[in-house]
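Table S4 entry, ABC transporter ATP-binding protein.
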Amino acid sequence: MRSELDLELVSLTKRYGDTVAVDAITHLFHAGTYACLLGPSGCGKSSTLRMIAGHESVTDGAILLGGRDISRLQPALRGTAMMFQSYALFPHLTVAENVAFGPRMRGVDAKTRARRAAEMLDLVEMTALSDRLPAQLSGGQQQRVALARALITEPQILLLDEPLSALDPFLRVRMRAELRKLQRKLQITFIHVTHGQDEALALADEIVVMNDAKIEQAGPTRDVFEAPATAFVARFLGSHNVIALPQGQIAIRADELRLRPAEGARLQGRITAVEYQGTHVALTASVAGNQDVTALLTDKDFFGAPKDVGEAVGLDWDARAARALEA
Ligand code: ADP
Ligand code: MG
């Protein structure tokens, strides 16, 4: 399939009455990228995705695919396909019939659509279950059928709205690896909405962090994680401390903090919690200004010199590890 076309959002805006759900966002998704739209509930992720798909009207701005304005085209003509959170399979149709449903509606002949459906089911490794009804499938299997049904339209862009949220944690981790594998194989653009930072980090070439209807920060996944621009991004990604110092506000990864004797350390405080996490130990201390700061220590470092709640402690870091945050 392989997409050749970049997708560009230009001052894209969605208002529902007085609610501004998406506020003039501008972003370029390069062809063939796995992108995650990441942000808390209500920040405008689904509205953005639905506007791209054409399931929601655009209030203002434009959506360009390969330079062509698709903002007002009907969904089937856009070169996009959406996989819904609920999968929305037809309960009375078999797996193969569900996948062939779109082509059937478009008047594709029976033989061609059966062949195409078989190809898609092969792609998602569901050939053996082609004749089952949706009720006879597990959550993960239903999701593969929904994927096959979206991909049969040969989209340039596959849009996925919280595709893993209905699965149990174990299956979620397995399915995300399969989504990534599928995207690599097809080389089309995936835009995957999630509120889970671990999911976004695991999957995405590029992360777009949204907050309150705006894009807070976007970029290659590691760049965003290594250098969060704002306190919101640092907190939302997790694994970072946001610390107010007299000079300003900084973010420091929990694993970049070192324990020191209190005297002479940059931060001094008292341990309020010690949490064993297997390979690591998370040690939280209350420091100047009543701030909680968490240091993630390897189990070897921690148990080499164990500490307990209530003990005084100093925390330090390499100057390179501190990221100045925008106010
Ligand atoms: P997210 O997917 O990030 O949780 P949404 O795009 O669903 O966010 O919603 C963004 C904002 O728009 C929220 O305040 C939500 O209540 C509002 N909203 C979403 N859909 C509608 C709608 N159909 N009518 C009115 N308000 C809506
Ligand atoms: Mg949503």
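The chain has two domains: 7-226, 248-324.
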